[in-house]
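Usage example:
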Amino acid sequence: MPDAISLRTTAKSGEAKASSRATLADPRRATRLVLAIFLGPALLVYCGLTAYPAFRTIYDSFFTIEGMDATFVGLANYRDLMGDETFWVAVRNTFIWSFVAPVIDVATGLLLALALYAGVPFARFLRVAWFTPVLLSYVVVAILWMWIYNYDWGVLNVMLRAVGLGDLASSWLGDPNLALAAVIVTHAWKWAGFNMVVCLAAIHSLPKEVLEASDLDNCGWGAKLRYIIVPMLRPTLLSLYILSFIGKMKVFDLVWIMTQGGPLWATETVSTYVYKRAFNWNTFDLGYPSAIATVWFLVVCAAVIILNRVLGSRERLEY
Amino acid sequence: MAVVKLDKIVKRYGGGGPVVVEDVDLTIDDGEFMVLLGPSGCGKSTTLRMIAGLESISGGTLSIDGRVVNDVPAKDRDIAMVFQSYALYPHMSVADNLAFGLRRRSIPGGEIERRVKEVAAILGLAPLLARKPSALSGGQRQRVALGRAMVREPQVFLFDEPLSNLDAALRVNTRSEIIKQHHRLGSTMIYVTHDQVEAMTMGTRICVMNAGKVAQIGAPLDVYWQPANTFVARFLGSPPMNLMDATLTAATRRASSPALDAPLARWSDGVLQARDGRKVTLGVRAEDMAIDPAALDGAPGGRVTGRTIAVEPLGAETLLLLELPGGGEITARLPRHVTAAPDQEVELFFRADAAYLFDVETGDAIAPLETGAAAVRAAVQRRTH
Amino acid sequence: MAAFLAAASGRAPLPRLFSRGILALVLGVYTIYQLGPFLWLATMSVRTTAEISADPYAWPSPMHLDQFRTAWVDSDFATYFWNSTMVVVGAVAVLTFIGAAAAHALARYRFRGNRLIYGILFSSIIFPPQITLISLYQILVDYNLYNSLFGLALVYISLQLPLTVYLLEGFFARIPQDLFDAAKMDGYGDLEIFWRIVLPVGMPAIATTLILNFIQLWNEFLFAVVLITDPDKRTLPIGIRAFMGDHFQDIGMIATGVMISVIPVIVVYVFFSEKLIRGMTAGAIK
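Running the assembly step on the lines above writes:
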């Protein structure tokens, strides 16, 4: 296999050149050898550890793989998948998360950025402070929030009881009706700072004259936001939405550590379900999870393309 | 000794792509300061980059001192170049920038140090040697770029619009600095610019380029006084030469139109006869136009009449823009006291020897005397009469 | 903070003062919401589980710094820490080199297939990890790289490669071509130009991707949990998770372990906060 990969690599980088004379003179051209040296390692890693595994997963999805034995089963895995209720629950949860949560993400990000832009004191400190959760690993975030949601001594219930709303105290991660929302809130907490920083940078790059002109037009803050800032930030907000969407479609770590998809599949996502079927259940078949992964891969690609088309179709604003 | 010779040089992008430089023939003599002048996109920079070895040559031969260097890599052509953006290495000190090109050439360390010190002293860079380029002013960066070329002691210096990033005052200073270094070193220099003032003041010869071709080569004033075609006539000179449509009458030796009447004193009978009754383009420079007929000293001169579009008093002089009845605009450079009301009819005068004639179709200048086959024919005709 | 605001806008009309006050209150509460959990974690990491059980929200007194020693020595967090360090530092070092080389080739040279290669690398940023996860598990088993830190580092290189190339390509493409022309005329070859011009000039961008990759791989969980089972080879994220599985009630020790994994990130953040924020957000803003 490694031989095949390196052959492919040289073939690819070898397409590079026109004639030796052109290569010699034009500084924007390089010999095959030079290109191979620069691109070879990266392409080798990419082909060997990204492209090949991806193709192998798609290939495997037509087999039942138990240990060393692979049995061709055609589309059986996909047929089973259609009737797999847990899979559909996972899809539903992931879609809810992927379409709803990015709205929360982008909206909080924008509002926080506006607050900093409006000129609060300590803005620099707040920016750095709010960004901190972005850097924490999902493991850390998950553990922290499991404690925050703890029924007996978690911050949330303690506060509810303190203000006399003890009846509302619940087992946030243990109640199938609440668990998904609880995990979504945790995820939003982690990423709010990221969206804020991106929005803030975008607001700062807006042309000052336009905002000043709107002041002269006697725009209030609300009108300014509604008619000037949001339309002009549209491209940034859209790419943030798509970025957030992609993140949600992949989400695994947080759910796995906080709830393992439970209770009663209430927080099951496609990622956790693939993991369970491949490595956690004693089903010993890698073919079926490969089929799920393949389907999901196609869904993510299609969703990103469609979102790009639908949201990005209107002309970008010129200013 | 370094003669750079371009023989039918062609640059084409891709296999059948557009031709950006076409059949350029140009010989730059040893120690000459050759300016490649033209508007942006005329192929002058591409030509320079081909000489430098930064661009492949699609056709023709490039030789330096008789050695064909088409396939010689840039580093082995013994050429140094000063870039428009200076291209100083931002992470190196001035001293390292100067030395960087020498380190590659197996020159002993002591020699490198000597040359860097010498050039730094010549260009006044000595106090700046330890600084990074980001800590230098635009003019200082420009001098480092020049110095980096000088330490190499190359056979040929190339300059690619080196002054265009400087402000006006610095540009004048640096211009004289480069001229000074040219006199001191006596090396061959090739200088690309779109600025006619730089071309006129710096070049021993100018090569005017247009649309990938050589429009004219010659000493600055020769090119100015004897433009080979309408392109050169308009590109050199500010405001550009006025071009007016006229019909030639050989019998009266005049070019005329409803607005215009000019005697053609400089041209031989043969030349005029050959174009009798045909349309020609008459050219007169703005500074040769006068509003006072006394400027003609009583000699027969030309006249042109138009309506005022604008009067632009510049202080030292006044520009008068006229619209001709048959269409077309002309500009006259007049003494500062001249005034005119808008839309007023104005008559301007010019000396007969200030007029140029150009072919309407090709735009080529019509020479006062016949050349080539036409000249022989005319001479034979004259003898038989 | 509200007091500060009121003082700052002392002569402002009352409604304005009021709205400023509300804003300050909201921002204050929000800051507590974002930072509070982390500070709470920090207090718990220097308290014993018994103390925490008595009152989870008390100020640590006395500070049990020996918790860290216990976690480090007795609870294997030292092993996890050094495993993480080796894998991440190794992967980031290699990643930076091959990513920079590829980014330079794609940004600088014209050759057929350039944009195709770039597009393929770039598009894999959106791939869900599962598409490679299962096969990578099989491949590493086939090549005896399963359960090995070296194998995990290789996988980490491939995970971060597309983003690294993408970020560096964008930066390298902005280095003016004149610089390369000048170096070429000075007699330097393609490899030397990369070494002597691109790497030093691109250092700010390289540092940004370096820090970004460090943080992301330091926090990586999914591939580690699939590809490492041997307790001696656990990285911090899966080590913490395993510890939590075994000692679910030992809140104090878990908090200490979590702090051990967070401290390097915080240290990096304190020194390079601007670079890091820029790096994290570079992909989103074009």
